[in-house]
């Protein structure tokens, strides 16, 4: 007789890797944040020294999205980005495991804070791209009042992630139909909902291709559906990492017009335009190594294939999106 309330046992290999990752995260989290950032920067620098997928994918995305930059500038941005990429992942344990008050004390400035004020009886849709310290952005949002966060269950560290994101009282809504109902109910109560808007949707329904920096990107329509159904305003929020003192600056930006349009392409285009505005505030801190354009329109060539060296990346990018003359 099977008790459904008993958690399914994970494969031994997964359990071992999870335990190792958990121990490493806890160890790093005990270090001073300044040292964590230095270690992360060193790890990112090492990733620039030889061809690898993270290095290739970051340069490919930068070359496609920012063709106005010279190739030298694109490489320089890629290398700076990998250092910031290292800081992002090294600091996550600190942001997860330190007391919420200590993590929130790292916020030195908030720009556009008035956009987070909630009208009585009306919810707020808050979009946090993979930019800067997105874990701190979610923690800051939840500290402002009742919040539900759209959440993708993870193979590793899932319990740790859920405990961390929920420690300010946030309700976690899984990326399922049930989770979407949680978001709707939260908005109808006048709560905020937090969504990462720049992940590639896996389902064919509820997504369309829309330009992101001029490149077709398979883009979610969930934000549009929620905004139209509930009338909730939409705001972008991200935490920019500051160089001087190890703190962060919170940015709140009003979403572009059209994000609640009845036209799916117009709505998705507005969503991506908001992401672009956020990214260009501190482009070196965006998650450029992510395969954002993995899914392509029918007949379009694949992007993240072939050799890993920079010469191949530039040739591939030139075939996909010629540089402006």
Automatic annotation (TrEMBL):
Primary location class = membrane
Keywords from the UniProt entry: Acyltransferase, Cell inner membrane, Cell membrane, Membrane, Transferase
InterPro entries for this protein: LipA_acyltrans
Where's it found, cell-wise?
A: Cell inner membrane
- One term of GO molecular function: acyltransferase activity
Which GO terms of the cellular component aspect does the record hold?
plasma membrane
Organism domain of life = Bacteria
Biological process annotations from GO: glycolipid biosynthetic process
What is this protein's name? Lauroyl/myristoyl acyltransferase
